[in-house]
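Ticket #4471: structure export looks truncated?
Reporter: QA, pipeline team
Priority: medium

Steps to reproduce: submit the single chain below to the structure queue and open the exported record.
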Amino acid sequence: MKPSIPKGTRDFSPTEVAKRNYIFDTIKKSFENYGFQPIETPAFENSSTLMGKYGEEGDRLIFKILNSGDYFKDVGSKLVSSGKMSVTFFEIIRSLKIRKHIVKEKFLSEYNIFVSKLVQSYPSKKYNINEKKIIEDFFKNNKEKIIKILNENINENSYESADDINVTFFRDLFVRFYEEYLNELDLLNSKKTTSLISEKALRYDLTVPFARYVVQHQNEIVFPFKRYQMQPVWRADRPQKGRFREFYQCDADIVGSTSLWQEVEFVQLYDDVFTKLGLTDTIIKINNRKILSGIAEMIGAQDKLIDFTVALDKIDKIGVEGITKEMLGKGIAQDAIEKLNPLFNLKGTNKEKLSQLKGMLKNSDEGSQGVDDLQFLIENVTKLGLQSSNVQLDVTLARGLNYYTGAIFEVVTDKVNIGSIGGGGRYDDLTGIFGLKDMSGVGISFGLDRIYLVLEELDLFNEVKLPKPKVVFLNFDKDIELTQLKAIKRLRENNIKCELYPDVAQSNKQQKKQWKYITNRNIEYVVSGVDGDIFTLKNMINGEQKQCSIEELLETVKNL
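Actual output as written to the record:
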């Protein structure tokens, strides 16, 4: 078998891990400098925790985990008990122990003949054949043939228990199988059936699990609570450049405060991290979901707010024409969409855009509030100043997640075409879905994997130093291995990284291999021999070699 990994996942070499850790460490230091505390949550959550929190499209991208064991075993009985199905085909087959391959072949043969005749009877290319209708017609019109096939392949010893199963009852049910089969076509792909075979899912992001964490641990938390979290998340997305199925998010959130100064600090935090990483001139796009609600109100699409924001969030990918088509498909009227033209044509400075928005949304209380909140954010960020980033008001920024209610952020760089490298926003009542009302929160996320690709492409990584021993003991004589390991133990007790080359050299060629190992790993000190309690120590930086005791060896490498 050829070794492989799932699409959208990656292996990381020691050098890549070191570079990723450099990004992690930079972000972590800034998080802690701003007062955030670390937490971690499980890689998977109960499905009920995640489902319904990300919108219809987000829910489809959640990786479900199948229940352990025979997860299909009780699906039929659960569907029956729920009233969604009187009995399932799976139950019938399992109960009757029919010789399934024979029945299948005969049914398929009859079914194919039936479909062929049916297709021939319709005008070519003018009739859209409904497969469900064909199946239904087949079973309705072939009851006797089905019963005959069934009877031919069942004998009195086929039943699990004659006392428990009424033969005639199940044969009659099988005649009605077409009805149940049609139901199963729908149910096997439905949320209700999925919930019967999967009760857990890999986390889609870190924010919803954080909300669950806050509610579950509310009596242990001091509010306002500032947390940071750096862990992997999983999405069943189509892999492409900068988009993976497994990737890391580095989140910082604060819950228990409605102060808009938090949004100001998050803009500063973005600026701080990207400046330290050397990624200057990043663009921090900002908007407010209240503004989007006001726009939806202005065009008469308040009841389509989620559809409106989900479509608008794709404007960079599919353009105005694409989102217009999607909005029409969601039932937003053409004349309503035409009212959005001024929105797509906002130009000028942030201050000028705010002025235009005020005029557009003057009749919407919620929209006007969003403009005021945004004005507070922009004005105070300007007064405090940024090191290297630029704030840009983008009224088409929507962020597709349903839980955002206030300010929203997205960070991009025009130096690399890779999409957003950060995003976030305010959520007024995300904890409410878990039973803790009126707990406003706001947070941002750094997309580590995309940041890595950007730094790599722009050659912005500092020289990465891989972990390595300071001293390596060469292994030329098995009789002194124990003496060397005692010396190594002493060095390690003094926090000196060291190791013994594991295999004893049996020839000059093998000795050269050990010296090559030293060169390839850029080892600073080498112990090439031991005579009693005297060690031969070579400095690989300047080439000096000397004889020394363990105390002298320790003192030499400690002072390097």
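Status: closed, not a bug. The export was complete when the record was re-opened. Leaving a note from the reviewer for reference: Residues 290 and 369 are 7 Å apart (CA to CA).
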